[in-house]
């Protein structure tokens, strides 16, 4: 069997390419260090000061009180995302998510045709409702942004409650066959196969299959990003549908009556395509994203169609990690470099 150094130097880049940076001890150590108060608190203070200054300036310029919470929220989210991508070593997760989203674009049409009919049947009744138009038309830009963020936060919060349960289900069923399947076409396929043939029954796979701490959160983030990408694609499809549908059937006079306004703010030569139509479409698209998020995790039909592939990827990640830890545990002390141990936290 190859020495630990040979296969470890090959599998660690594989983890990173597949959005699993916290499976690599060095990357995990850097992320842990970035969360220490001595590093995080000074940056947090700077972000708060910048957000307060920006919100005060925009509120003064626009004379809209709603600009303050919208700016504070936006600056905070952008700063948190930037810190996660850089200091918290989450860039591989984002890169993997972008690649997966790009590759899944060809599946957008089948996904939309499976998910949209029932969803549109429900949401279209809201679209042709005068009260919804009045509500949406009265929302200014900052309030609309906060409304969309509220739906997004609720959806993400729901996923963060349910996704850990999915991780726990997968790591409870680690066996030799799963590890063999998971490590196929990976840098550790051969050494893991040799180890399982020689000592498979002796290996504590239950221990290796347990994913704690930062590695567990890495899997949760991978699932979260995957689901968010699917929801975002579906929400954009709903947005496009209502813009087209509304541009065809919602005449300017109807929009004026339903929004209780003297006139709607439409584009030149496109009387039906108005700002109010965009606001209603954005509101319903974000609501549809929340609805779809809950449906995927709770409805068995949606779950099979949209979540089975994600669970397969999760199973593979846990199986490859178990094989990786088995190799580390089986390595002779003389071949273990830098005092590394299989510990995960």
UniProtKB/TrEMBL annotation:
The chain crosses the membrane at residues 40-61, 67-88, 108-130, 142-161, 219-245, 277-297. Signal peptide: none annotated. Keywords: Membrane, Transmembrane, Transmembrane helix. This is Integral membrane protein. It comes from Nocardioides euryhalodurans. The lineage of its organism: Bacteria, Bacillati, Actinomycetota, Actinomycetes, Propionibacteriales.
């Amino acid at each position: 069997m190859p020495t630990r150094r040979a296969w470890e130097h090959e599998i660690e880049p594989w983890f990173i390419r597949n959005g699993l940076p916290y499976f690599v001890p060095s990357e995990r150590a850097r992320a842990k260090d970035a969360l220490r108060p001595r590093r995080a608190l000074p940056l947090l203070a700077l972000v708060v000061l910048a957000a307060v200054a920006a919100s005060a300036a925009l509120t003064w310029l626009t004379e809209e009180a709603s600009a303050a919470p919208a700016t504070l929220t936006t600056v905070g989210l952008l700063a948190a995302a930037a810190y996660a991508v850089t200091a918290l070593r989450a860039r591989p997760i984002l890169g993997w998510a972008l690649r997966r989203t790009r590759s899944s674009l060809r599946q957008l049409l089948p996904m939309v045709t499976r998910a949209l009919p029932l969803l549109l049947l429900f949401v279209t009744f809201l679209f042709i409702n005068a009260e919804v138009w009045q509500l949406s038309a009265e929302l200014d830009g900052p309030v609309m942004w906060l409304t969309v963020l509220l739906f997004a936060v609720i959806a993400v919060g729901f996923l963060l409650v349910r996704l850990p349960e999915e991780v726990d289900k997968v790591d409870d069923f680690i066996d030799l066959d799963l590890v063999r399947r998971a490590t196929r076409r990976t840098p550790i396929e051969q050494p893991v196969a040799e180890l399982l043939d020689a000592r498979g029954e002796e290996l504590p796979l239950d221990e290796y299959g347990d994913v704690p701490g930062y590695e567990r959160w890495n899997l949760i983030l991978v699932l979260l990003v995957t689901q968010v990408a699917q929801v975002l694609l579906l929400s954009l499809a709903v947005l496009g549908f209502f813009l087209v549908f509304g541009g065809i059937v919602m005449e300017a006079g109807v929009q004026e009556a339903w929004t209780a306004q003297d006139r709607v703010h439409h584009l030149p030569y496109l009387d039906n395509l108005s700002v109010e139509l965009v606001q209603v479409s954005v509101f319903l698209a974000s609501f549809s994203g929340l609805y779809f998020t809950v449906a995927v995790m709770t409805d068995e039909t949606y779950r099979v169609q949209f979540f089975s592939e994600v669970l397969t990827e999760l199973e593979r990640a846990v199986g490859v990690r178990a094989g990786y830890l088995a190799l580390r545990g089986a390595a002779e002390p003389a071949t273990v470099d830098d005092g590394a141990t299989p510990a995960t936290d």
